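Q: Could you fold this chain for me?
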Amino acid sequence: MLNALAALLSLQLLGEAVVRWLAWPVPGPVLGMALLLLALLLRPVWLQALRDTAKGLLQHLSLLFVPAGVGVMLHLQRLGDEAWAIGVALVLSTWIGMATAALTTVWLLRRHAGAKAPQDGT
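A: Sure. Below is the predicted structure, expressed as structure tokens.
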């Protein structure tokens, strides 16, 4: 378990280092997860080694929300002052995300239907 946890944290650290070094506008842990996906695709045997540790982390995932809750309570006044902007940003980003997902789904379904259409040999 310790080796698996060290591997997960090392990939997160590597992602963070690459993002800071190249000044990419993406969170380091996201790049770390992409690196983890790449590692698992290249070495599927690692999946079994990481599975138990990942399950343990996911079972206690709710504990990771405690610092966020404390931060919200600490900055409650500021959140109240910025409520209108936060609300607009949340609604717009939700609509944009849903529209993007819908358009992507429609595009993929049309592409899949076009690929399955019988080819005329004449």
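A (continued): DSSP finds six helices and no strands in the chain.
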